[in-house]
TrEMBL record:
Residues 175-193 have a biased composition (Basic and acidic residues). Residues 2-146 form the N-acetyltransferase domain. CDD domains: NAT_SF. This is N-acetyltransferase. Keywords: Transferase.
Length: 205
């Protein structure tokens, strides 16, 4: 019996400890962490999975980013406790969180990871989307939650928001009347690059 819940501030220490256990030292030096620093997680998509005794077995987190100028989710880290790996818990968290993301109106997800694992959830290599260096381009994978959401997108992945001390009031969006929305987004998705979606609430105070 397992319980999947949105991560709460009280889970923070345990989740960090699980990630430290499952990843090599220095994980936060990875270039993908530069996209996360100072940016609030997408709280309702960050999930914990506990067993019947309340032991934390797995966790997944998501951050908002901009990919080729469009809103996207950055999936990860996801980790399953070494004693529980290979039992389907990672897949449970992947499917549950992606379903929540789709229901929440997100159009596209990207991650940096092993294609042999993530392709079972529909992730494919993103040929034209660049993560900050150094990132192996073969590990940059994307999933469409809305049909066509990655079609024709070419460009870098950038932070969704500036760090708080540097944050400025975002400029008003300039949308020409003749500017059609991308097939994978709705008109209200065309926010300025630093505009936070309503569902991007910070986890802690
Ligand atoms: C990767 C991870 C999240 C998968 O979760 P899990 O619960 O162990 O995996 P599942 O039970 O859902 O799936 C098991 C299957 O995935 C495969 N798999 C697991 N990790 C894999 C990887 N890195 N590459 C390819 N396949 C992988 C297993 O071989 C197994 O294959 P099978 O179904 O053909 O037998 C987990 O093993 C883990 O925490 N690893 C360490 C941290 C990590 O690498 N996280 C991902 C990077 S963000």
């Amino acid at each position: 019996m397992f319980e999947i819940c949105p991560e709460s501030p009280a889970d923070e220490y345990e989740v960090e400890a699980l990630y430290d256990l499952c990843f090599a030292p220095g994980r936060t030096a990875l270039s993908s962490y530069r996209l996360r620093e100072g940016v609030a997680r997408v709280a309702e998509l960050c999930l914990t999975l506990r067993d019947g005794s309340g032991i934390l077995l797995a966790a997944i987190r998501f951050w908002p980013v901009r990919a080729a100028g469009r809103r996207a989710l950055l999936l990860g880290p996801i980790a399953v406790h070494p004693t529980a790996q290979g039992e389907g818990l990672g897949a449970l968290l992947m499917r549950d969180s992606l379903e929540r993301a789709r229901a929440g109106g997100w159009a596209r997800v990207l991650l940096v990871g092993d294609a042999p694992y993530y392709q079972r959830f529909g992730f494919r290599k993103l040929e034209d989307v660049e993560m900050p260096p150094p990132t192996n381009p073969d590990r940059v994978l994307g999933l469409e939650l809305r049909p066509g959401a990655w079609v024709g997108l070419t460009g870098p992945v950038t932070r969704a928001e500036m760090p708080a001390p540097l944050a400025q009031t975002p400029p008003a969006p300039h949308i020409r009347p003749d500017q059609k929305p991308h097939p994978g987004e709705s008109a209200d998705e065309r926010k300025p690059a630093d505009g936070a979606a309503p569902d991007q609430r910070p986890l802690g105070p």
